[in-house]
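FORM 7B: Structural annotation worksheet

SECTION A. Query
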Amino acid sequence: MLPLQKIQEARQTIAPIIEYIPLSFAPRLSSLLQTNIYLKKENLQRTGAFKIRGAFNKIASMDKKLRANGVIAASAGNHAQGVAYSASYFQIPAIIVMPEATPLLKVLSTKSLGAEVVLHGDNYDESYAKAAQIAKERNLSFIHPFADEEVIAGQGTIALEMIEDQDLDYVLVPIGGGGLISGILSAYKALKPHTKIIGITAKGAPAMRESFYSKQIHNAKSVRTIADGIAVRDVNVLNFSYICEGVDAIIEVDDEEIASAILYLLENQKLVVEGAGATGIAALMHNKLPLKPNDKVGVVLSGGNIDVTMLNLIIQKGLIKSHRRMHFQVVLVDKAGSLQSLTNILTKVDANIVQIDFDRTSASLAYGDAYVIIALETKGESHQKQIRQELKANGYDFKEIL
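SECTION B. Predicted structure
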């Protein structure tokens, strides 16, 4: 594991640019789970994620002449912004290679910090290969997002802050490449060895979890998850060795579980958290840890840079799953008053129409009929049951659209 002194030195190095955000007790989540949950809100860092810690520590530690030539990184977004910000701080050029599917928010944010952005590849690993090629061609220093001791030391400073705030039984940390959890476990095993370090991976990026439990590296053929910040295909040897040495368990969550955690944090904690950052909450909400009532659990919310389009999709699907929105298609006779008769019924059951569309041309319709597609705001499962019963009682032919 990384020496504690290296992490302590990193804390001094990054102090000028890091927002100190203490652990925050989450009363609603604690009540829901019948235990004590504390949040480390790295989504509130100045670049919206923890990655600024490692990036800044690495660039600050470089030889000044070498640093002046410029730096390059490959990143899905958060490391990109950390490197871009740090390069701007030291007034050096920076190039960031990002996967082509990187959310626009992260691309624009990286450019706004002064970096040149190159979009290449379907995932981090393909972007990494391109960045290595450019680094060689232009004589730039490559800033690795996780397989670098200075970067890992910077990420480990999170643990020093958490240890000062609260004596925890568990710490839940998202795993992509493994730099964050490598730094955190190094500090905890040195200072609080009784604390269990639990890694959280996305089901669509299984390489590190499978490698951890088989004790040998197994790279994934592909990755697919809404948690783009941890969508890493290949396992790095350095981080794998740290993880095998200090992680107590690795838990897997799927995209549906991650989405529900994002929505829960938004509604109940008033926090905007991206997919990777919500994985720890997803694991807790879906009972993947054998917790006791007196346990103290720290959860690292690693970032908040979620694409607005993705957030909107998660909200809309979440409303449907929680029976707060209902979509259905009904057949009406295409004549004056038909729609009013339908809306009168919906008014009677206190259902609020938020969207309505007509289709008169579908080949499946009889002549003189029309489809009406309606979206309703509803008040739960029993309310939706009442709406269905009322439509059936009045002879409407309808089907729900999920």
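SECTION C. Observations
The chain has three domains: 2-47+146-313, 49-140, 322-398. The domain at 322-398 is CATH 3.30.70.260 (Alpha-Beta Plaits).

SECTION D. Sign-off
Analyst initials: ____
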